[in-house]
Amino acid sequence: MGARISIPGINSEAATDLPVLLPFRGRPAGEAEDLRFSRWVGSVPPYYLLAALCAAALWPLVVSAQSNYTQAEAWDALWRWMPYLVTSGFALNLLISFLTMLIGTLAGVALGLWQISPKKWIRKVAWAITQAFRNSPWLVLLFIVMLAFPFQIEIGDTVIPIPDWVKAVVGLSLPIMANISEVVRGAIQSVPTGQWEAAESLAFSRGQTLWRIILPQCFKRMIPPWMNWYAILAMATPLVSLLGVEEIVTLSRQAMESEDNHPELLMPFYGFCLVIFFAYCYPIARLTISLEKRYAVKL
Amino acid sequence: MTENNWDSTQPIVSIKDVYKSFGALEVLKGLSLDVMKGEVICIIGPSGSGKSTLIRCVNGLNDINSGSITVEGQEVHDEKLDKLELRKKVGMVFQQYNLFPHKTALQNVMMAPVLVLKEPRAEVEQRARALIKKVRLEGKEDSYPGELSGGQQQRVAIARSLAMQPDVMLFDEVTAALDPETVKEVLVTIKELAQEGMTCILVTHEMGFARELADHIYFTDRGVIVEHGPPRTFFNDAKDPRTKEFLSQIL
How confident is the prediction for chain B on average, in pLDDT? Predict the structure, then answer.
């Protein structure tokens, strides 16, 4: 244990009787802090990508000079596999991310609206669901959905198989739903209460107030955090490879195995995964940040 | 719904022995006042005395703990009351204008009649344009609230309330957030309304305005009406020491 730092008024006797300004704690969801991920990805200057590629190409040359499988052969292997990895592997990652975002957004908007319901018990339940799924490890949720869901549904005589990737979509939708729920709640609550009162005094119903007055005002505010969550989700899709879904990381592993598992293959194949995810998320992150800035000025 | 035999010889707004508290804080402690059709009444008093809460209770934005408030004979705080019916009768203008920032001035005025009253758009538009002209904002129909000054926004807010064709207008410190030079244009608008016979209940700090226009002035302090009367006697001949003190500070 290091020396305990004494902060007057917080963990030691205050030196004055004037009120002490306590440290700032937290901030509501849907605000700038939530865009950490996009800020971070978006802050990478484009030429870093090139530098990283060069490093990736050079490093294994040093490591495995003694093997008779050359680095050039490894790159050759990647080149052969690349179309398959992209069209079968990465395409599935994208499909999972699109469907997850679609389901997560629809469910999240509903959950977010329930979080501001006039009925107390609906608010409580929606809040509890939101917090539960927001604060659970994604992988644990994925495992639960994977194992708890049947691998096929029988309706009469017809058997409808449920592929693993569909279950993965369900599993990933849960945390996305919870986080979108917070985005929606935060955005709605950022609209001044005077707007609700003005609408109420003009005899608008609650539904009319929400859809005609409140949501149109905060729709723009929801876009940057929504995109931020999409980028996080897209980056998280390789998680499902742990469950055997044949997306890009699973296929890369299989490809390397069929190329006799030479260590020289690691950097080209996994490096390619990194590059393709970065290339996909980078423009999204940049757009998120620029939209954030533009909308911030308008409000 | 209760049977309604209200006629215009009875008070249009009647507040009887109203109590209201927010948690442990008692804001209104047995207030009563009557407003006749066409009257202009001003409620004045130090801040925190419950003035705003009182008029917010009149159109049901706040509920009350006990007592009764009726508008045209209808109990406002009746569970079965159709809030829409009440709010068609009672318009309200706020200190912070509360215009809808994503709609133009004209759309702000038209929205409620079109969406709530389901009136034909063309008819509403005609009325809305006339109202905007009436508050002297001709040419600003297509401006967004963000492009208008505080005084102009407040006049749009007045037009927006009038578009519902209310019988009573509530004004909650409508000039308190305005620059001094734009206060007058808003007061002129309210004055014209009053002279046309609109029943107006104002919470205000504009003493000159209250003196000139009010039929009756109520002075509230700590949740009760301390003193009331027509402006002449109220301003020249205040009896209660609290009223005297307040007036000496403000005049």
Answer: 89
Listed range (A14-18, A67-71, B100-104, B241-245) with the worst mean pLDDT = A14-18
The CATH number, out of the four listed (3.40.710.10, 1.10.3720.10, 1.10.3080.10, 3.40.30.10), of the domain defined by the range A68-151+158-298: 1.10.3720.10
Domain B13-100+166-250 of CATH type 3.40.30.10: no
Give the whole-angstrom CA distance, residue B70 versus residue B130. 31
pLDDT for res A299: 41
Q: Residue B116: which of A195, A197, A203 has the nearest Cβ?
A: A203
Treating both helix axes as pointing N-terminal to C-terminal, what angle do A266-298 and A47-63 enclose, rounded to 10 degrees? 160
| Residues on chain A bordering chain B, Cβ-to-Cβ distance under 8 angstroms | 192, 194-195, 197-205, 208, 212-213, 216-217
- State how far the Cα of B101 lies from the Cα of A37, in Å rounded to an integer: 31
Mean pLDDT value across residues B222-234? 89
Put simply, the answer to whether A203 touches B83 (Cβ < 8 Å) is: yes
Q: Which residue has the higher pLDDT, A40 or A129?
A: A129
Query: Does B244 touch chain A if contact means CB atoms closer than 8 Å?
Result: no
Q: Which residue of B has its CA nearest to A198?
A: B98
Residue A65: its pLDDT value, please? 55
The residue among A181, A184, A206, A190 whose CA lies nearest residue A126 is A181
Q: Which of A195, A196, A201 to mutate to probe the B interface, most B CBs <10 Å?
A: A201
Total beta-carbon pairs less than 8 A apart between chain A and chain B: 53
Task: Please state, in angstroms and rounded to a whole number, the distance separating the CA atoms of residues A164 and A146.
Answer: 7
Residue B59 is nearest to which of A201, A212, A216, comparing CB atoms? A201
pLDDT-based confidence at A66, cuts 50/70/90? low
Which ipTM score applies to this complex?
0.90
| B112 contacts on A by Cβ (under 8 Å) | 202-204
Per-domain residue ranges of chain A: 68-151+158-298
Is B94 in CB contact (< 8 Å) with chain A?
Answer: yes
Contact call for residues A20 and A12 (beta carbons, < 8 A): no
